[in-house]
Specification:
Length: 350
């Protein structure tokens, strides 16, 4: 009984600490967002610096070379890509009200074509709901766009601060790890370090692999939208690449913008069928060809737990919560597995 009581106390304290961490993360969401952005970038760039170290280039010199290359790429993007993306975004924002007006008109025409009777009342209710929804979207569209622009401008501070944080993370990586190891209790040091190494390998592999998968999905989606002559292929491709981060339901979310643009532009069922077929092929290749090649090992996570974690962390931390939900869930699973294995070994040892 005392052992069960002690275990209950430990579980309760752990839950309270986790709740406090989540609450703190919610209250300082922008700071946490900047740290998570820096964390992800550091994970992506550290293998390059490590590779340069293996080529007998000092870590400081390797970081300088890497930042020089990134500065050149950023300059190219600002000079050439940013104006193009700005034009695409302005065109999208300018055409959205027209698309919603088209959908509203389609709903009105459909309502006029349906005859009288009991079925008509049900369809009229559905069409009226679509029409009122389109009116609400049109009314809030301007405010939503300006709110999104405000958030983008506010997050520019994170984009400016993140490279500095990444620089320190890369440069002081070993010193930070050694400092953490020294502060660990000697009785639990080996266990915590073993868990840390496993989590580091798992999270690093997932983040780098997911970036590669998202880029491939975005490129394939862009090509498919061009072949189908769907408007705004760049936006659809970016959205599909980001949606591929979400397991199980990302494929459904990714098809929403291209289906919307295709139907608003052509207003026939054939183009919708073609878009669905295109994305089905893309996500079949992603699930059965691309991911098995990119991800050497699977985390084998419970789908229900994963979706709940994505929803919870997405609500707390936004995009970065969605991106890191899977590796965080994997880290928790690794910790629990290592803890169980450690207890099993302790119970077997005489």
């Amino acid at each position: 009984m005392p052992m069960n009581l002690a275990t209950t106390h430990k579980v309760g304290i752990t839950l309270l600490v986790l709740a406090a961490i989540f609450y703190l993360g919610y209250t300082i969401a922008h700071t946490v967002s900047c740290l998570l952005l820096s964390f992800v970038l550091a994970y992506l760039l550290d293998p390059v610096v490590t590779l340069l170290e293996r080529r007998r280039i000092r870590r400081s010199y390797g970081i300088i070379l890497l930042y020089t290359l990134l500065t050149i790429i950023a300059f190219f993007c600002i000079i050439f890509l940013l104006p193009v993306m700005s034009q695409r975004w302005e065109a999208l924002v300018g055409e959205l009200p027209g698309y919603f007006q088209k959908l509203k008109q389609i709903a009105l025409d459909l309502k006029g074509r349906i005859g009288l009777g009991y079925v008509t009342e049900e369809w009229s209710w559905l069409i009226d709901s679509v029409q009122s929804g389109a009116d609400k979207v049109l009314a809030r569209l301007g405010a939503g766009v300006y709110a999104a622009v405000y958030r983008v401008v506010f997050n520019l501070f994170n984009l400016l601060l993140a490279p500095i944080l990444v620089l320190f993370m890369l440069y002081y990586k070993q010193e930070t790890m050694d400092g953490i190891a020294r502060w660990l209790p000697s009785s639990h040091r080996d266990f915590v370090l073993a868990v840390g190494r496993e989590v580091n390998r798992s999270i690093g592999g997932f983040i780098r692999g997911q970036v590669i998968v998202s880029i491939i999905v975005a490129v394939l989606s862009f090509v498919a939208m061009l072949l189908l002559d769907v408007r705004h292929p760049v936006f659809c491709a970016i959205f599909a690449g980001v949606a591929s981060i979400i397991p199980f339901i990302g494929v459904i979310i990714a098809t929403v913008p291209p289906l919307f643009f295709a139907f608003a532009e052509f207003q026939n069922g054939l183009i919708l069928f073609q878009v669905i077929i295109a994305f089905s092929v893309i996500y079949f290749l992603e699930g059965y060809v691309i991911k098995p090649l990119v991800f050497k090992e699977s985390m084998d996570l419970n789908p229900l737990v994963t979706i709940i974690m994505i929803m919870a962390l997405g609500e707390l931390l936004g995009f970065w919560g969605i991106l890191l939900a899977v590796p965080i869930t994997g880290a928790i699973k690794i910790f629990c597995t290592q803890l169980r294995n450690s207890r099993d070994r302790s119970s077997v040892t005489p």
